[in-house]
UniProtKB/TrEMBL annotation:
Compositionally biased residues, Basic residues: 32-42
A Pfam family assignment: ADK
Name listed for the protein in its UniProt record: GTP:AMP phosphotransferase AK3, mitochondrial
PANTHER family assigned to the protein according to its UniProt record, in alphabetical order: NUCLEOTIDE KINASE (PTHR23359)
GO biological process, one term: ADP biosynthetic process
NCBIfam families reported in the protein's UniProt record: adk
GO cellular component entries: mitochondrial matrix
Length: 293
């Protein structure tokens, strides 16, 4: 078992609303991507209005309908593999109703459908090379254009300063959520992770082990450890992430957009993220809003 010293989560301003218990296990992080209907608004406009009809003059005594204008949130979530991005993103989707756009999901979808960009991206991956910035940028910006009437959260993009600069030319980013989890903690998480290949079920030997070691709870079939989760591979992935994304974090820090949340447990980091986002968006979840998970 890996033991790491927990660093206290850095509470944002207005932490009074942060006394929120988290979840024990992550939920699905698949936010739907839908093309917007009607007249398209520019992604460059951070305050593209969402107007809601107010009370009529019979109720309010005003002869004009009231108009409510809310700025649309354009957010990015960053964190190394195994930092809990999937879990946190799922909770953000649930409570704040944002559209979630994951570069990894989008890439896999394009490769599975064998689109032109999917075939091109796969050729780089098969050669063990990073996908060039211009391909990733084109792929993501094309999807973002369909979300211009929604609040959205980008996951896995941008990963380089060149990608961040290209995104800035098209969209006004409001905030960047950085999950600052110690690498030693992540190594423990990932190397303890085993999967059931056929279903994709994930087990963690420390937090959510199978009932019988090495066996899937449902089918009784053997579990495997992905190559990506083997100790030597995990170390290389974390080193690569650190080298690639440090400049991106610094880029957003200089712009005053970076909000870092430190800790070793997602359930302890989440309440602070929730309190921070409450200053920007209302909680739209239908139940348990006073005790969000």
């Amino acid at each position: 078992m890996c033991l790491t010293g927990a660093r206290p989560a850095a509470p944002p301003a207005g932490e009074a609303a942060a006394a929120v218990p988290g979840e024990d296990r992550p939920g699905p992080a698949g936010g739907a991507r839908r093309r917007s209907l009607g007249r398209r608004r520019s992604c460059r406009d951070p305050a593209a209005p969402l107007r809601a009809r107010g009370r009529s003059s019979r109720d309010s005594g005003d002869s004009r309908d009231s108009m409510v204008v809310r700025p649309l949130l354009r957010a990015v979530i960053m964190g190394p593999p195994g930092s809990g991005k999937g879990t946190v993103s799922a909770r953000i989707i649930k409570h704040f109703g944002v559209k979630h756009l994951s570069s990894g999901d989008l890439l896999r979808d394009n490769m599975q459908k064998k689109t032109e960009v999917g075939i091109l991206a796969k050729s780089y991956i098969d050669q063990g090379q990073l996908i060039p910035d211009h391909i990733m940028t084109q792929l993501m910006l094309n999807e973002i254009k369909g979300l211009d009437q929604y609040n959205w959260l980008l996951d896995g993009f941008p990963r380089t300063v060149a990608q961040a600069e290209a995104l800035d030319k098209e969209c006004h980013i409001d905030t960047v959520i950085d999950l600052d989890v110690p690498f030693e903690t992540i190594k423990c998480r990932l190397t303890a992770r085993w999967i059931h290949p056929a279903s994709g079920r994930v087990y963690n030997l420390e937090f959510s082990p199978p009932k019988v070691q090495g066996i899937d709870d449902i089918t009784g079939e053997p579990l495997v450890q992905r190559d990506d989760d083997k100790p030597e591979t995990v170390s290389k992935r974390l080193q690569a992430y650190d080298a690639q994304t440090k400049p991106v974090l610094e880029y957003y820090r200089k712009k005053g957009l970076l909000k870092s949340f430190s800790g070793t447990e997602t359930n302890k980091i989440w309440p602070h993220i929730y309190a921070f986002l409450q200053t920007k968006l209302p909680d739209v979840s239908q139940k348990d809003a006073a005790n969000p998970r």
